[in-house]
Amino acid sequence: MTTPTPKGTALVTGASSGIGAIYADRLAKAGYDLILVARSADRLTEIAKRLTDASGRSIETLAADLTERHDLARVEAVLKSDQSITLLVNNAGIAAVTPLLQSNVDEMERMIALNVTAPTRLAYAAAPAFVARGSGTIINIASIVAINPKLLNGVYSGSKAFVLAFSQSLENELADKGIRVQAVLPGATATNLWDNAGFPVSNLPKEIVMSTEDMVDAALAGLAQGEFVTIPALPDSADWDAFETARNALAPNLSLAQPAARYRPAQD
Q1: Each residue's pLDDT tens digit, 15-39
Q2: Cβ(19)–Cβ(188) under 8 Å?
Q3: How far apart are CA 204 and CA 210, in angstroms?
Q4: pTM of the complete model
Q5: What percent of the chain has pLDDT over 90?
Q6: Upper half-sphere CA count for residue 193 (Cβ side, 13 Å)
Q7: Is 156 one of the annotated active-site residues of the chain?
Q8: 116 vs 101, residue with greater confidence
Q9: Across the chain, which distance is largest between two alpha carbons, in Å?
């Protein structure tokens, strides 16, 4: 068996199950050492042992609840100080499917803390170190609800729209500094995120649910192909290009000195 070339260390959040656990597996096989972050120390230890045995890579674990500021600060400190880190996977997140009037606002605030505040602070911690070294990659896991927000809970959709917009800003600011940014927009994926949201994935039509393994493999293939946005289920990348072209075409007229004619007072 060919031993992959070492690629530095990848820090993966939400690594104890689902998408994060598959990222950990694939990255270890690709030659990355790992720092795995999640709330469950026991599950992280199990995964680390399995991946170390299978890959021979160095794998550390960091049990942290990223909705708690003290725990989040510990992960930030690692990103700032560990010079071996070359890749950040902002994967940790929670979802909701309930409408606004049926949602608990405290749970929505916790969702914002995990889906918005945590990836923002971790990217802010990683980016200066990456820039100083002239290389590094930030992968942000968003969702198709970032561009189709009526599918699920509005706060969840809004949080993922933030991840996409934040990624676009990061890519704009960091690309010329040697930093790669990728936003991944999965559709329905077979993870426990659905169970945690109170809507088991078994309730969804099978033809729209992708396996976690296929989703991560597609995302990594998109990264290897140089994509900024990867939508694993989208058959034709030209559709995304057309969407972006239409969005960018609005730019020259979004801010002008005068209101559009249709908003001006009627003339007597």
Answers
A1: 999 999 999 999 999 999 999 999 9
A2: no
A3: 11
A4: 0.94
A5: 84
A6: 26
A7: yes
A8: 116
A9: 83
* Interatomic CA distance for residues 261 and 153, integer angstroms: 36
**Residue type at 166?**
F
Burial (CB count within 10 angstroms: exposed 0-12, middle 13-18, buried 19+), residue 227: middle
Residue 144 near residue 231 (C-beta atoms within 8 A): yes
Contacts of 237 (CB under 8 A, 6+ apart): 227
Helix, coil or strand: residue 86: strand
Length of the chain counted residue by residue: 268
Residue found by looking up tokens 């649910």 in the block: 209
pLDDT tens column, 36-88 = 999 999 999 999 999 999 999 999 999 999 999 999 999 999 999 999 999 99
Q: What whole-number distance in Å separates Cα of residue 45 and Cα of residue 38?
A: 11
Residues 33, 57: contact at Cβ < 8 Å?
Answer: yes
Q: Which domains does the chain have, with CATH numbers?
A: 9-237 (3.40.50.720)
Instruction: Indicate whether 182 pLDDT > 90.
Output: yes
DSSP 58-127: -EEEEE--TTSHHHHHHHHHHHHH-TTEEEEEE-------S-GGGS-HHHHHHHHIIIIIHHHHHHHHHH
The DSSP call for residue 255 is S
Six-digit token pair at 27?
A: 């990255």
Q: Which of 23, 124, 156, 263 is catalytic?
A: 156
Distance from C-alpha of 85 to C-alpha of 83, rounded to nearest angstrom: 6
